[in-house]
């Protein structure tokens, strides 16, 4: 059944042996924890995953953007872009919507086909001609503790395969989100323009990227 079709299993190494020291002058090691490797399953999202995706979005947005955006702005993005209705629609219509799952959902990626109307305004999409198959990476988020273990790259690659490939992939990333920007640049994305996303409670500066 599609719901449990598995696109890949990766093993995330968590820290290796971790030494725990007591505080103060006579520092003594009090424990050594050997945290095990964790298996992470990458599979297509289904409707039942929506609450898990919302939880990841909530925690990832709060930890990534708390120092730059007001709680009201973050709440507005989550209420609109991550409402149950919006996510349920996206899960059904996506070019690819995958989740990374350990004992719970720890991350997700969402690709959609670029709309031709958006190409009127978005610099990245202007580089793609009307008859080319361009994908937009709309969302890629991991829980904070799961970042930096190769899961983001795996979600991206499996999502691209699931969508059937494309001549180009576009995305936007918040201008000050250097961690994500370096990650995308490592994947080969190039910055091609900037624009501002205006919401009711504020605005977000975005950088547009393209992978050709
Ligand atoms: C951005 C994000 C999706 C990346 O996923 P990740 O699992 O942490 O990244 P990975 O571990 O798969 O890294 C993949 C590659 O990018 C590199 N990379 C990751 N973060 C990097 C950084 N900050 N600087 C330089 N390179 C970085 C890794 O070294 C790795 O390269 P390698 O495979 O050659 O070693 C993840 O960190 C995240 O969810 N961040 C918070 C939410 C967010 O900002 N999402 C993007 C919104 S547009």
Strand content: 25-35%
Q: Which percent range fits the helix content?
A: 25-40%
User: How many β-strand stretches?
Assistant: 10
Mean pLDDT: 84
C-alpha Rg (nearest Å) = 19 Å
Quaternary form? single chain
Shape: globular
CATH class: Alpha Beta
Please identify the structural class as seen in this structure.
alpha+beta
What's the number of domains?
1
Largest sheet: spatial strand order: 1-4-5-6-7-8-10-9
The CATH superfamily bears the name Gcn5-related N-acetyltransferase (GNAT)
Low-confidence stretches: 1-5
CATH architecture: 3-Layer(aba) Sandwich
Description:
The protein is α+β, with helices and mostly antiparallel strands and 212 residues long. The protein has one domain: Gcn5-related N-acetyltransferase (GNAT) (Aminopeptidase, 3-Layer(aba) Sandwich). 30% of the residues lie in helices and 35% in strands. The strands form two sheets. An eight-stranded mixed beta sheet has the order 1-4-5-6-7-8-10-9. A two-stranded antiparallel ribbon has the order 2-3. A hairpin with a 2-residue loop joins strand 9 (190-199) and strand 10. The longest helix has 16 residues, at 50-65. The chain is globular, with a radius of gyration of 19 Å. The two termini are 33 Å apart. Bound molecules: coenzyme A (COA). Coenzyme A (COA) binds at residues 60, 64, 140-142, 147-153, 173, 177, 179-180, 182-183, 186.
